[in-house]
Amino acid sequence: MFPPVFGFVILFSITITFGSPVVTENNTNVVSLNIQNANNGQAIPPTMHGVILETNINRGDDGGLYAELIYNRAFQENGRSLDGWLRFGEGSITLSNNQSLSSALPVQMKFTLNETSTTPSGFKNGGYYGISIQPQNYTASFYYRPSTSAYIEGGKLTIGLSNLDGSNIYGAATIDVYNAPVSVWSNFSATISVFDAAQSTQNVFFVAFPPNSRGDFEFNLISCFPATFKNRTNGVRIDIAQAFADLKPGFVRLPGGNDLEGPTIPERFIWNNTIGPLQNRPGRRGTWVGYNTEGLGIIELLTFVEDIGATPVLAVYAGYSLDRKAVPQDQLQPYIDEVIDEIDFITAPADASRMGALRKHLGRSEPFDIKYVEIGNEDFVATSTYSYRWPAFHNALSQRYPNITFIATTTSSIPSPPAVDDHDYQPPQFFINNFRRYENIPRPKPKVLVGEFSTINARDSNSLPYPTLAGAVAESIYRIGFERNSDVIIGGCYAPVLQNVKATQWTPNLIPFNANLVVKSTSYLAQQMFGANLGNIILNSTATNSIMTHESVQKGGEGDGKLGNLYFTASKRTDSNTLIVKLVSVDRNDTLVNVQIQDSLASSEGVMYILAGGPGVDPSTLSNTIYNPNAVSIITKLIWATGGKFSITVPPWSVVVVNLPL
Ligand SMILES: *[C@@H]1O[C@H](CO)[C@@H](O)[C@H](O)[C@H]1NC(C)=O
Ligand SMILES: *[C@@H]1O[C@H](CO)[C@@H](O)[C@H](O)[C@H]1NC(C)=O
Ligand SMILES: *[C@@H]1O[C@H](CO)[C@@H](O)[C@H](O)[C@H]1NC(C)=O
Ligand SMILES: *[C@@H]1O[C@H](CO)[C@@H](O)[C@H](O)[C@H]1NC(C)=O
Ligand SMILES: *[C@@H]1O[C@H](CO)[C@@H](O)[C@H](O)[C@H]1NC(C)=O
Ligand SMILES: *[C@@H]1O[C@H](CO)[C@@H](O)[C@H](O)[C@H]1NC(C)=O
Ligand SMILES: *[C@@H]1O[C@H](CO)[C@@H](O)[C@H](O)[C@H]1NC(C)=O
Ligand SMILES: *[C@@H]1O[C@H](CO)[C@@H](O)[C@H](O)[C@H]1NC(C)=O
Ligand SMILES: *[C@@H]1O[C@H](CO)[C@@H](O)[C@H](O)[C@H]1NC(C)=O
Ligand SMILES: *[C@@H]1O[C@H](CO)[C@@H](O)[C@H](O)[C@H]1NC(C)=O
Q1: pTM for this predicted structure
Q2: Which residues form the Alpha-L-arabinofuranosidase C-terminal domain (predicted)?
Q3: Are 89 and 221 members of one domain?
Q4: What are the pLDDT digits (tens) for 381-433?
């Protein structure tokens, strides 16, 4: 039997109270949760909880996920500049555009020793807001061209990693350029082995010429990579990539977002500017900040998505950019052809098409598996032209790719699409109030991808600097709504995800980081609990309290998915016969939940994950930050079920996930 009822029982209360949720007495709500075990039921797609990889925002790719350490490696920042580069010793650095390395990289750096040097001289780069130096191997490379009169004493350059003034060198290598032909570009690379970590990230990468050298020396694409995730060449930063992987994301939406659209039409994401050798990638002005090198191009992005086991949601450019200009209807065809080339490049067999062959030529013979393509971004701001852009793209693409689900970015001004992407940036109360939103939308289509959502403020209109516990709790209520409506919801994802805290245009973000620290925000931890504990079918469940019966619970009423301040969903992994119960409380007091699993006499040991603030903590101000990254963490407890029953206490303002073998 269930334990007797203690304390107060909450009835139908939806009052949400912030501030001092301190439980000073034993005031415990008691709820009975009845779960029907079954092996059939509404399917939950594996894409349910995903992430967005919006390039450029908060320097999330260049200066973030992309492992390249060198800032402004090809002198493209700030309208072509030497920004980030400093000379040392003797000599000077200037920009030069004489006979550049490639048409994509039209300027280079010229280092000039106009008199024979007497000290070690050269240039250095402090990275994107610092360089983390750890015991490992770094791979450095550059393109180099000496002038006819150039002379290097001994014929060797030294490259390395040091502190700012070079008094402490953590690792160095020599590069023999003696045989480099004059007036011609050659590339060189070397491994820099580091054995001791630097305490600070105030470090530089340097290129040094020995004393007694002289002349003009040109450089471009000066690059330095640490070890990368899965050891990929031109790959991604291990700690940030691992944070993505640990979310167990079902999908990754890429490459944006606003950065897909670009500041202007010519500055849109152009897929074939992001492939092939780096010297052939021109990059483009960033939508949010700085310059996009596009070193992390379409192949690298999709490879990363594959490496973390997720399904890509490929966003394609749909003829609208952020200067609010749309491609006129009679000029759309080249843009449609561009997308067809892009999807062919990504998905066509290598031996059956020109684009597939190009992909193979670039080192990737297997096609990528693309199930979802989103046409455009947030065209609810451009409905008057989406009315012709969507049909033009969708008609052409859906005929050619019958197995792909195409996602529209608004349903206004177009006929009902197969799927639509909803975006919600809101205070916590919105997500709580809209728990049942997706119970009341048309079925069977459009299906819904909640491609961006997050709690952006507490009560006023000021953006939060970091996600809070209250936000994570509210988002989790919305996520329970996604799972319960998995017949129409493809999945949802918090946005934005990446934030270099030294280059921020938008807060809050799921994964703030600096050169050597990655923060798992409250919202991250909540999403991780959902992503890592995903059922493949929904189980029927009802909650009651002392004055209700399970028979009296109506669909869409109290007890169905929600009872008072408690929100819940039950699901199952049929392959491992595991029950998953997700519970979210916005109550000030503990909630004692007595669970009965119908048609199961399971007596087993399970795990309960809890994200909560603890006594006396205001959930609306509790955050993991770059200064206090572990203010809140997931607590794991063991639980025991006997004869299909178990009891758990759900703390105030918390997210709880139970995982129990049946
Ligand atoms: C919650 O607990 C407080 C004491 O901490 C008590 O005053 C209050 O009545 C309780 N609220 C409910 C709705 O039970
Ligand atoms: C409140 O009472 C219940 C039932 O006796 C007990 O299980 C629980 O631990 C108590 N909670 C607190 C906070 O004292
Ligand atoms: C869930 O409940 C509904 C409505 O009562 C019922 O039609 C359905 O068969 C149940 N599904 C399972 C898997 O028990
Ligand atoms: C050489 O360059 C230095 C700056 O590095 C400059 O001060 C000096 O005037 C130059 N000398 C000649 C002869 O151009
Ligand atoms: C670093 O490189 C050196 C020489 O290239 C090699 O011997 C060593 O095993 C490498 N160390 C690591 C950690 O990869
Ligand atoms: C341009 O570069 C070429 C190749 O290095 C060189 O021969 C030529 O002198 C340079 N011209 C100028 C104006 O520097
Ligand atoms: C030089 O560049 C070419 C083309 O990008 C590349 O294939 C080669 O590996 C590079 N060599 C070195 C030593 O970096
Ligand atoms: C990556 O390379 C490092 C150093 O060479 C090695 O220790 C590690 O096992 C490699 N990892 C993978 C996944 O191949
Ligand atoms: C990119 O592809 C478009 C057609 O999709 C083509 O017109 C353009 O020349 C290509 N650009 C490059 C750099 O190959
Ligand atoms: C669509 O999927 C079916 C079933 O997997 C497959 O046979 C067919 O070749 C696919 N069509 C295209 C155009 O990829």
Answers
A1: 0.93
A2: 451-654
A3: yes
A4: 999 999 999 999 999 999 999 999 999 999 999 999 999 999 999 999 999 99
